[in-house]
């Protein structure tokens, strides 16, 4: 039987979000219905509300979530009712050219639930990033559910579903940060701080945090930054070189998505170093650099999609490290809020007051 629950909906461009009754169908083949326990508020939710992603309104927002599988479709075998899971954006297909070459983290044919959740009048909802988890219940492809240790509280576990995973993975997976490396992270919001935490976990020797907001730099220290640079007052490239014996960092992670900070990243790495772009630029942005510098500096210029994560590999491992006290995922949770507080959380996010506000269902 389809169920009716409360969900946070963006009805039209720029309008404040509203709490609406939504209809969540029974899971069909390949689908799972999940009782959401907690869901973080991310910039991407705000971008959906502002019409900056696409114009397929109304959106059911929320996509950084943990919950418990309530029911599954007839053919689903990899998760079962009662499983404690983190939701991810995309189920991996297993058959595309990336999957067949053993690189499912790059799957080019990922998918979400087939059936649509709707408003009471039958209007179809577009779930944010194929999830839609500011709701008491949501419908996803079963492959979007990854089982993890239920000892991790949902407001913490859910964060791996998006921004924190993107940052951790930018360092660990894409940047391949290793023991003894020097790393610089430009932009220390949730994504940048996660890149710092990932670099620390991977054994980096020097971790330089760059931001224009001193509050962010203070927080970055808590996650493992050994040096901080306020690039409003100091030249970021010079400061990174200074902190690395005059050479530049082995890995520079750009966690904002802007041409000027990408250029800083490009020039702040050592010869044969790696630049990782995890911040998402907008389509109008352009960059112009001398081609000879691309050649002369060698190394690698990479982008990190969702931290190049493979949920089945990375989520349970990172939750275990958290439970062992080796990864401070709890420090990303600035506050827990109720499902009716998402609009207020957007406001705080906009002012840079929080790393993550997390909706806890029933609070
Ligand atoms: N130089 C240095 N730091 C900057 C600059 C700049 N020119 N402009 C902004 N910042 C800092 C902000 O002060 C803030 O601390 O970058 C940080 C960005 O953090 P958030 O806005 O909290 O964003 P976050 O959630 O970390 O995401 C960062 O990754 O996934 C993408 O879409 C996301 O592009 C975004 C990026
Ligand atoms: Zn997100
Ligand atoms: Zn695939």
UniProtKB/TrEMBL annotation:
InterPro entries: ADH-like_C (IPR013149), ADH-like_N (IPR013154), ADH_Zn_CS (IPR002328), ER (IPR020843), GroES-like_sf (IPR011032), MycoS_dep_FDH (IPR017816), NAD(P)-bd_dom_sf (IPR036291). Residues 14-359 form the Enoyl reductase (ER) domain. It comes from the Bacteria. Its cofactor is Zn(2+). The keyword NAD applies. Keywords: Metal-binding, NAD, Oxidoreductase, Zinc. The keyword ATP-binding does not apply. Its EC number is 1.1.1.306. GO terms for molecular function: mycothiol-dependent formaldehyde dehydrogenase activity. Belongs to the zinc-containing alcohol dehydrogenase family. This is S-(Hydroxymethyl)mycothiol dehydrogenase. It comes from Longivirga aurantiaca.
């Amino acid at each position: 039987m389809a169920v009716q629950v409360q969900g946070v909906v963006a009805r039209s461009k720029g309008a404040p979000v509203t709490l609406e009754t939504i209809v969540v169908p029974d899971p069909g083949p390949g689908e799972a219905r999940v009782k959401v326990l907690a869901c973080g508020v991310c910039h991407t939710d705000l971008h959906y509300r502002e019409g900056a992603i696409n114009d397929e309104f109304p959106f059911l927002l929320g996509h950084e979530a943990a919950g418990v599988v309530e029911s599954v479709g007839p053919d689903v075998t990899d998760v079962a009712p009662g499983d404690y899971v983190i939701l991810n954006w995309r189920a991996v297909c297993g058959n595309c050219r990336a999957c067949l070459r053993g690189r499912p983290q790059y799957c080019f044919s990922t998918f979400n639930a087939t059936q649509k959740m709707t408003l009471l009048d039958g209007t179809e909802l577009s779930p944010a990033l194929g999830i839609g988890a500011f709701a008491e219940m949501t419908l996803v492809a079963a492959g979007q559910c990854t089982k993890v240790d239920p000892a991790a509280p949902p407001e913490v576990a859910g964060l791996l579903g998006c921004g924190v995973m993107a940052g951790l993975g930018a360092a660990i997976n894409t940047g391949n940060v290793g023991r003894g490396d020097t790393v610089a992270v430009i932009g220390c919001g949730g994504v940048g701080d996660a890149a710092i935490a990932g670099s620390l976990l991977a054994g980096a020797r020097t971790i330089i945090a760059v931001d224009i907001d001193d509050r962010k730099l203070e927080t970055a220290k808590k996650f493992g930054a050994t040096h901080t640079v306020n690039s409003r007052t100091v030249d970021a490239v010079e400061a990174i070189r200074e902190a690395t014996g005059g050479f530049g960092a082995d890995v520079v992670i750009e966690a904002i998505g802007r041409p000027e900070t990408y250029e800083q990243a490009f020039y702040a790495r050592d010869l044969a170093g790696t630049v990782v772009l995890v911040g998402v630029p907008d389509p109008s942005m352009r960059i112009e650099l001398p081609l000879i510098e691309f050649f002369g500096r060698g190394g690698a210029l990479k982008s990190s999609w969702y931290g190049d994560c493979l949920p089945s590999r990375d989520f349970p491992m990172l939750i275990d490290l958290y439970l062992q006290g080796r990864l401070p995922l709890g420090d990303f949770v600035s506050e827990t809020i109720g499902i009716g507080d998402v609009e207020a959380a957007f406001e705080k996010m906009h002012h840079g007051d929080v790393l993550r506000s997390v909706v806890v269902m029933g609070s």
